[in-house]
Design brief:
Elements: E1 28-33, E2 39-44, H1 48-51, E3 67-72, E4 78-82, E5 88-89, H2 94-104, E6 112-114, E7 135-137, H3 138-147, H4 151-159, H5 165-178, E8 197-198, H6 200-210, H7 214-220, E9 224-229, E10 232-237, E11 249-258, E12 262-271, E13 274-283, H8 286-302, H9 313-323
Antiparallel strand pairs: 1-2, 3-4, 3-13, 5-8, 6-7, 9-10, 11-12, 12-13
């Protein structure tokens, strides 16, 4: 059963229980020139949340994220929420579910996997330092996917899963249903597709579940990692700068970005002695999603211990059931 929490956008009652539909096709074109002088035209798609009118909504903490949810992991108390039932693209937060399936499959982590042409991004045209033909172990690919959000690594993990890519995608969706993530849909394992969608409520459930896996905790919070590729040594770093901050105690995290999703961040962190799950979707930028986490942290540290959102008995029951599914 999914978390049954009402949508809250500041103090705007008319936005309660709002689900986000597919956005209209609104494109703005950026025109530039290549070094050789050829005209280059690229299309910028506004985020789904912006098209749906969730962008810039007022809330008590002045968060820059269109969607936010903060839950006490041990008591299931919802401390803060903003549009938490809105169903939006989740970008590379997708890779957290990819990691769950790979880890639970107990496949050999030392098995060598070759990056193929099939792993090259044709959705967004993103670059990668993992060239076609690169050979890394499954464990190395999982580390890069979770820590530095390497798209070819994540795709290769799904492609080489027993039964192939389509089987893997089917299992991603099946796992979501099992966890009660009824707002969630996956079409590929990287997050490059805007059709990978979820709600903050569902993602809180996923973070809580994934936190139960020591391997996912370790790899997602790794600050940096090196891999040997032929004669080259490639240095990778975390996509979440808070991981390296001595002021933060982060147990699990994942970032994400595509234009349709905006900047996203989910994590489990200990704040003021409380284990919290934080979800931020469609933030204005890399720094603003971090700033939102900082705002929430200062608010929790300065507020009374019992501060939280009042839920009905049914909502509390649904939340408890979703957050206490066995790991």
């Amino acid at each position: 059963m999914a978390l049954a929490v009402s949508v809250a956008t500041g103090a705007t009652p008319k936005n309660q229980h709002k689900k986000v539909a597919k956005p209209v096709s609104t494109l703005t074109k950026k025109v530039g020139k290549t070094r050789k002088g050829a005209v280059l035209v690229s299309a910028h798609r506004p985020s789904f949340a912006k098209v749906a009118g969730l962008h810039g909504g007022a809330d008590g903490l002045a968060l820059k994220s269109s969607v936010a949810l903060v839950v006490d992991q041990e008591t299931n108390e919802v401390l803060y929420r903003k549009n938490d039932q809105a169903v939006l693209p989740i970008a590379s937060i997708t890779k957290l579910m990819t990691g769950v399936l790979i880890s639970e499959a107990r496949l050999p982590m030392d098995e060598s996997i070759t990056i193929s042409q099939a792993d090259v991004d044709t959705e967004k045209g993103s670059s990668s330092r993992l060239r076609v033909g690169t050979q890394l172990t499954r464990g190395e690919l999982l580390h890069l996917a979770l820590m530095s959000s390497e798209n070819r690594a994540a795709h290769a993990l799904g492609r080489t899963y027993p039964g192939g890519l389509q089987t893997f995608i089917s299992l991603m969706n099946s796992k979501a249903r099992t966890l009660g993530m009824n707002d969630t849909r996956y079409v590929e394992p990287t997050g490059l597709s805007s059709q990978n969608q979820s709600s903050a409520r569902d993602l809180a459930v996923l973070v809580n579940y994934a936190y139960g896996d020591p391997l996912l905790r370790e790899l997602s919070t790794s600050p940096n990692y090196q891999v040997e590729v032929g004669s080259r040594t490639l240095q990778y770093n975390t996509t979440n700068r808070l991981v390296k901050s001595p002021d933060w105690d982060i147990g699990l995290q994942k970032t994400g970005y595509i234009s349709e999703a905006g900047q996203c961040l989910v994590m489990q962190a200990k704040v003021a002695g409380r284990k919290l799950i934080m979800v931020f979707l469609d933030s204005a930028g890399k720094l603003s999603r971090i700033a939102d986490a900082q705002r929430v942290r200062r608010w929790v540290e300065s507020g009374p211990a019992g501060t939280g959102v009042k839920l009905s008995a049914l909502e509390r029951s649904d939340l408890r059931m979703a957050m206490t599914l066995p790991n």
